[in-house]
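From the pipeline queue, job 12 of 40. The input is one protein chain; the requested action is below.

Action: predict structure.
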Amino acid sequence: MTKQVALVGGSGKLGTIIKAVIDDLDGFEVVRMLTSSSELDELDGADLVVDASTPQVSVDVVRAAVERGINVLVGTSGWSAERISLVRALVESAGTGAVFVPNFSLGSVLGSALAAAAAPFFPSIEIIEAHRDTKIDSPSGTAVRTAELIAAARTEQGPVSAPHADQRARGQQVASVPIHSLRRPGVIARQDVILSGRGESLTLTHDTVDPASAYAPGIRLSVPFAAEARGIVVGLESMIDIGIGHRS
């Protein structure tokens, strides 16, 4: 039986890619396309909600889906661990599933995993992320997720060394990791994680060159997974075996 999908933000950059992937995915059909200003009653009757809206609207979309007993896949940026905690009790009490994917790129997920694996060995770690000038939120959801994974990997070592963090030019600290956000034309998405120790440094870089090609494999994994999920699940790494997948 084909599952009916309500896609919120389907006319945006990410939403357009998600729509194209679902159109080619067996067992799923986009039957409703909502904008960020649509009435959320339009979610009624869907088997799965996919959210590619805006950070301002996304919380309402997730709550509306869960209150209707519908699983939701969230590709919208801005969902930190703190923000996810705002809907955790609702999801768990409803017995539904809410899957949050900060980045659908397999390469990006692997880059974050490598950064987390290296994190215990370097006292200083900072993230520089760059996106096009039309991206309205910063830091990016990918950078936030990377910082959270780094912190989780450093439970024995403690917070990273971030001197002079009180100065605004030192970036925004997430889980003790300074993040510096660039918003400029001529770039799609890039993240550099710079790990430094005595006498050496390691830089892990991920570049998104073609979003449609980069995100499609992750979307194909995420849609069927989200349709059957229960509880809160964070990150594409929860769906592939790279050694750090876990339910958050």
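Job complete. The helical segments are 13-23, 55-67, 81-94, 106-118, 141-153, 211-228.
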